[in-house]
Amino acid sequence: MITIKSEAEIKLMRVSGKVVGQALLELGAKVKPGITTQELDRVAYDFFKKNDCVPAFLGYHGYPATICTSINAEVVHGIPGKRVLEEGDIVGVDIGAYYKGYCGDSARTFAVGKVSAEAKKLLEVTFEALNKGIEQCRIGNRISDIGHAVQKYAESKGFSVVRDYVGHGIGRAMHEDPQVPNYGKPHQGPRIVEGMCLALEPMVNIGTEEVKVLQDGWTVVTKDGKFSAHFEDTIAVLADGPENLTRVS
């Protein structure tokens, strides 16, 4: 069931969203050759604690960390550890937090030092695909208009869009109805109405759209071993258009 948020609820989500967005800025500044993903996880945990927020991922279905760190061909749900980031890597950092029971969820994929032209283009296209989806979060549109816009843009630039993992509603729970695919035909699915809150998260690949899960039961990778990027924001649908709750400058 899709839940519609009141202004009071969205006000709380603005707080969790802002903290998540600020945490990503902190993490982005730390992403350099030589740092471990475990160190990034500690930065996020400490930041949430300092800002009176509860990590949304830690313990979720047994997940063992505060953030997800997905490197190169890892699409999503990579577990932080002792791996050291190297020049030319890209790393997707996905984070979420609760403030007074309401969740914000966001992700960015960062370049580690100087990356290839192809990887740079992948990051730019995935971020712009997210923006194309956000533009569709308007009263009267349908949920499928979001995914259609994401898919159309990403594929026009020569990339593929992951089908097996999708965006979602968000609020008191991190994952709520409706599912928000990053692909599909337009003008289908639930009508978008004021008060909906949605987490849009394109996952875009250089090669095949096909993915698989590694033996750890969490880490999703591309089947062909080519790079993947992941960007996400939490959006509130308001009368005058979409409000991005997690993007801070």
Describe the fold and architecture.
A 5-stranded antiparallel beta sheet has the order 8-7-9-14-15. The protein has one domain (7-244): Creatine Amidinohydrolase, CATH 3.90.230. It has helices spanning 7-30, 37-50, 117-135, 143-156; strands at 54-55, 67-71, 74-76, 90-99, 102-111, 160-161, 167-169, 176-180, 197-200, 203-205, 211-213, 220-222, 228-230, 233-238, 241-244. The two termini are 33 Å apart. The protein is 29% helix and 27% strand. The chain contains 4 helices and 15 strands. Helix 1 runs antiparallel to helix 2 and helix 3 (117-135) packs antiparallel against helix 4 (143-156). It is of the alpha+beta class.
Question: Which helices and strands occur, and which strands form pairs?
Answer:
Elements: H1 7-30, H2 37-50, E1 54-55, E2 67-71, E3 74-76, E4 90-99, E5 102-111, H3 117-135, H4 143-156, E6 160-161, E7 167-169, E8 176-180, E9 197-200, E10 203-205, E11 211-213, E12 220-222, E13 228-230, E14 233-238, E15 241-244
Antiparallel strand pairs: 1-4, 2-4, 3-12, 4-5, 6-10, 7-8, 7-9, 9-14, 10-13, 11-12, 14-15
Helix pairs in contact: 1-2, 3-4
**What fold name stands as the CATH topology?**
Creatine Amidinohydrolase
Q: Classify the secondary structure makeup into a structural class.
A: alpha+beta
The percentage of residues in β strands lies in 25-35%
Overall pLDDT confidence? 98
The order of strands across the largest sheet is 8-7-9-14-15
Span between N and C termini? 33 Å
Overall 3D form: globular
Order of helices and strands: HHEEEEEHHEEEEEEEEEE
- The CATH class label is Alpha Beta
CATH architecture: Alpha-Beta Complex
